Automatic annotation (TrEMBL):
It comes from Dentipellis fragilis. The active site is at residues 110, 267, 295. This is Proline iminopeptidase. The keyword Hydrolase applies. It comes from the Eukaryota. The keyword Protease applies. Keywords: Aminopeptidase, Cytoplasm, Hydrolase, Protease. Residues 36-296 form the AB hydrolase-1 domain. Gene3D superfamilies: alpha/beta hydrolase (3.40.50.1820).
Length: 316
């Protein structure tokens, strides 16, 4: 199976006002009468990328993109007000109702896998299937591994750049130290911190380091939204109990939903431990470890399995 690079451009672009503050951007592409699938982007804060349409057969799927609060083309950019996991879950449901869709497939990687699980556990009767990649459940141990000590041992040169904006005396809690800089009233301080935070993730996302991917962090507007929103969620523990998404009573709500999980063996952003913990809590899922992949959905082995999964569910 290969990516559907013939994916069509959006046939509908819309705005959905979800609060006095936030207006969300959404796009529909593929087959207007096809099987609806919502793509939940990562970050939080990254926004959707047109290339993400390539995971879906455009003849069979109605592909729905949603830029989450403060991300992508949603406004206001980088806003942290009224921006929590549960606000986003409500937004997804509002969009489903707005588009008059009864049930849809849900596809998400990294933070998108977190939000997919949170949405499915909140609205299990609205989800036809789940395709999840790079599992992230926002446990303190996961955040500590990536932002404090763990991934630092694999990417020491990138780590030195990541910690550079933070005074040595404040490095005992890097997420909190970054929180102060990312919310600084000084534009230069905030953007410098945002780029350093974003570059750390870009530098560690692929098995083979990709300079072009790292360079994406140089975009001031994108980095500001990505870093500020991610950090906001992470210092607040995702606005949920530690390990909530893996609790038996939560998994029991979605145990009946056909689900494929795809995890890179050498994922340094969302290590395989979390995906394995999900498999142990939910043995019914179809589970794949990609032996030659890191975190990115763009790595060949991961891409292939993601397309196989969406093809499998296209007629469900």
């Amino acid at each position: 199976m290969s990516l559907y690079t013939s994916a069509k451009s959006a046939y509908e672009i819309g705005k959905l006002k979800v609060s006095d503050i936030h207006t969300l951007h959404y796009e529909l592409s593929g087959n207007e009468n096809g099987m609806p699938v919502i793509f939940l982007h990562g970050g939080p804060g990254s926004g959707c990328d047109p290339k993400d349409r390539y995971f879906f057969n455009p003849e069979k799927y109605k592909v729905i993109f949603l830029d989450q609060r403060g991300a992508g083309k949603s406004t206001p950019s980088a806003s942290l007000e009224e921006n929590t996991t549960w606000d986003l879950v409500k937004d997804i449901e509002r969009l489903r109702e707005h588009l008059k869709i009864d049930k849809w497939h849900v596809f998400g990687g990294s933070w998108g896998s977190t939000l997919s699980l949170a949405y499915a556990q909140s609205h299990p009767d609205r989800v036809k299937s789940l395709v999840l990649r790079g599992i992230f459940t926002l446990r303190k141990s996961e955040l500590h591994f990536f932002y404090q000590e763990g991934t630092s041992h694999y990417f020491p040169e990138a780590w030195d750049e990541y910690v550079a904006p933070i005074p040595e005396a404040e490095r005992g809690d890097l997420m909190l130290a970054y929180h102060a800089q990312l919310n600084s009233v000084d534009d230069e301080t905030r953007i410098k911190a945002a780029k350093a935070w974003s570059k750390w993730e870009m530098a560690t996302s692929k098995l083979y380091v990709d300079p072009a991917h790292i360079a994406e962090a140089e975009n001031d507007i994108w980095a500001n939204a990505f870093a500020r929103i991610e950090n906001h969620y992470f210092v607040n523990d995702g606005f949920m109990r530690d390990g909530q998404l893996l609790e038996k009573q939560e998994i029991d709500k979605i145990r009946h939903i056909p689900t494929v999980v795809i995890q890179g063996r050498y994922d340094s952003v969302c290590p395989a431990r979390t995906a394995w913990d999900l498999k142990k809590a939910w043995p019914e899922i179809e589970f794949h470890i990609v032996p030659d992949a890191g975190h990115s959905s763009r790595e060949p082995g991961t891409e292939k399995l993601l397309v196989q999964a969406t093809d499998k569910f296209a007629s469900l």
